[in-house]
Amino acid sequence: MTEPKPTVAGVPRTQGTSAGGAAPPDLAELLRSSAKGDQQAFAQLYDAVSARAYGLVLRVVRDPAQSEEVLQEAMLDVWRQSARFDADRGSPMSWLLTIVHRKAVDRVRSAEASTRRDTTYHRQNQPVEHDSTAEAAHASMEARRVRDALKSLTSVQREALELAYFGGYTHTEVASMLGLPVGTAKTRIRDGIIRLRDTMGVGQ
């Protein structure tokens, strides 16, 4: 199906009721229509969620211009994946914001990787004191330990933990984004922390 081209000029239009105080649209129905290639339905979906989605991206990326770009990319992903939405597994807003958040995190990780490459290049091309080299090596080893430890978590634990500690979200926000009861989200985060601690040997 032809991909729509949503645009954002500054901060997207505010989510909520349409002109005249009409009830907010049925997001699940708009997703189902979008899955059938209905670009008008997707435009309505975009208008309904863009403000909240933009706020989420901005909170992660922390740059307005890049946030607009990420929002565009994320909403195109929503368009492509709209047929995968399953109302039995969560609300349409939670499903959509999960896609948006992952796209924002990908942008941050990409930027961090680029910064690391630049830093590595400069370090390799400049004389470095012995102590600085040892410190950098230690930091690299610690980062590798954390990455390896994260791989030991289950996918649900890792997703909840990344949202809470790398995304900076509260337990309530994590629960909303994953379509879970707050207690379940807290349990996944707690179990993930315990498993990370055990894997890394913290406190032993």
Automatic annotation (TrEMBL):
What's the source species for this entry?
Nocardioides dokdonensis FR1436
**Where along the chain is composition biased (Basic and acidic residues)?**
111-121
Which InterPro entries has this protein been placed in? RNA_pol_sigma-70-like, RNA_pol_sigma-70_dom, RNA_pol_sigma70_ECF_CS, RNA_pol_sigma70_r2, RNA_pol_sigma70_r4_t2, RNA_pol_sigma_r2, RNA_pol_sigma_r3/r4-like, WH-like_DNA-bd_sf
Tell me which PANTHER family the record gives. Answer: ECF RNA POLYMERASE SIGMA FACTOR SIGK, RNA POLYMERASE ECF-TYPE SIGMA FACTO
Residues of the region (Disordered) are 1-25, 111-132
Please report the stretch or stretches of sequence annotated as the RNA polymerase sigma-70 region domain: 45-111
**GO terms, molecular function:** DNA binding; sigma factor activity
Annotated ranges, domain RNA polymerase sigma factor 70 region 4 type: 144-192
The record ties this protein, via PROSITE patterns, to: SIGMA70_ECF
Is Transcription regulation found in the keyword set? yes
Provide the protein name: RNA polymerase sigma factor
Q: Which UniProt keywords apply?
A: DNA-binding, Sigma factor, Transcription, Transcription regulation
Recorded hits in CDD domains, A to Z, give: Sigma70_r4
GO biological process annotation, one example? response to stress
- Classification via Gene3D superfamilies: 1.10.1740.10, Winged helix-like DNA-binding domain superfamily/Winged helix DNA-binding domain
